[in-house]
Design a protein that fits this description.
Blueprint lengths: L5 H24 L7 H9 L5 H34 L11 H16 L4 H24 L7 H23 L3 H7 L12 H19 L2 H7 L3 H6 L4 H23 L5 H13 L3 H25 L8 H20 L5
Length: 334
């Protein structure tokens, strides 16, 4: 892939920031309830407490959560693709997000979990165990963990975990009522309290990923060459893996399982800024935030006065892109 000049990369990031600001403004302005522009202005410039102003103010934490979750999934997808050198790597496809979902549902149904912080810890553990399981299964046989074997083992694990979630929820109407919308994936229940609880986990996960950017660039040359260059391959893999799993687990705990963001975003970012992870992770965070925020806006507008959860919108976007990647890349390693 052609190396992008630094000015081009900076321009891409600046353009991404501008688009993200625009997407955030649209997210606050448009929703299932139509409000006038003067009501939007009044919501932030006065203490008016009308229905329209309240609706506008409620969209702010939703917008912030959509940006945080989208950025987290975008960065996690880029890290996972870099670690596995697999163009099909995605938290949902590799079974990481379903593992987090199964852990949360099991915790609530069998252990009485009821706090957001508890959900996050359990989701991170579930995501870690699921990813380790998928990697182990995909490593069996000749050739080790090839992209195709990882994708197939991830798909099988996702199907199994989804069935287990249904088996847990169906007899438990109380749990089903709580999580029937969460399972679809959405940010409709956002609040400043939830954001404050999940933010430390997202920050830690992002920092773990960022400290590994140089190591990820070296790993792209192959493990043997990376060791020859002095890279501590196992340490880099473990730290980057923990960062990606923390981001996936925490995002899933607060927004439910959202598919394909971690698949689509890194591929687009490589076209824009190249394969250097120092630029790739920054652009993946921006584009992931943009994608999920815009998808949430679209879901609110097209189904007025109801709404379509953002997880459905991203699936509609991501499924054709997944087919395109399979046909274009022919499931070869990055």
């Amino acid at each position: 892939m052609m190396r992008r000049p630094v000015p081009v990369r900076l321009l891409v990031l600046l353009a991404g920031v501008a688009v993200l600001v625009l997407a955030a403004a649209l997210s606050v302005a448009f929703g299932t309830r139509i409000v006038a522009w003067q009501d939007i202005v009044s919501a932030f410039t006065t203490s008016a407490d009308g229905i329209a102003e309240a609706a506008v103010r409620q969209r702010v934490p939703r917008t912030v959560l959509a940006m945080l979750v989208g950025a987290s999934l975008g960065v996690a997808g880029a890290v996972l693709q870099g670690l596995t050198r697999n163009p099909l790597a995605d938290p949902m496809i590799l079974g990481i997000t379903p593992g987090a979902s199964l852990a949360v549902v099991s915790g609530i149904a069998f252990f009485g979990l009821s706090t957001a912080t508890g959900y996050i810890w359990v989701a991170i553990v579930g995501a870690a165990l699921a990813s380790a399981f998928v990697y182990t299964i995909g490593s069996l046989g000749r050739g080790g963990p090839t992209p195709l074997k990882l994708a197939l083992s991830g798909a099988a694990t996702t199907a199994a975990f989804t069935s287990l979630i249904s088996a847990i929820l169906l007899p438990r109407i109380d749990v089903m009522n709580v999580f029937r919308f969460w399972q679809v994936g959405g940010v409709g229940g956002a609040s400043y309290s939830r954001i404050g609880q999940v933010l430390p986990f997202l920050v830690v996960g992002a920092l773990l990923c960022l400290v590994c950017v140089r190591g990820l660039n070296t790993l792209a040359l192959g493990d043997d060459l990376a060791r020859g260059l002095g890279e501590r391959v196992m340490v880099t893999r473990i730290v980057a893996f923990l960062g990606a799993v923390t981001l996936c687990g925490a995002a899933t705990a607060v927004a439910g399982p959202i598919a394909f963001v971690g698949l689509v975003v890194p591929h687009v970012c490589r076209l824009l800024v190249g394969v250097d992870h120092r630029w790739l992770l920054a652009s993946a965070g921006l584009l992931g935030a943009i994608l999920l925020t815009v998808a949430d806006v679209v879901g609110r507008i097209v189904a007025r006065p109801s709404e379509i959860d953002v997880g459905i919108v991203t699936a509609i976007i991501g499924a054709p892109f997944f087919i395109y990647v399979v046909r274009r890349q022919k499931v070869r390693a990055l």
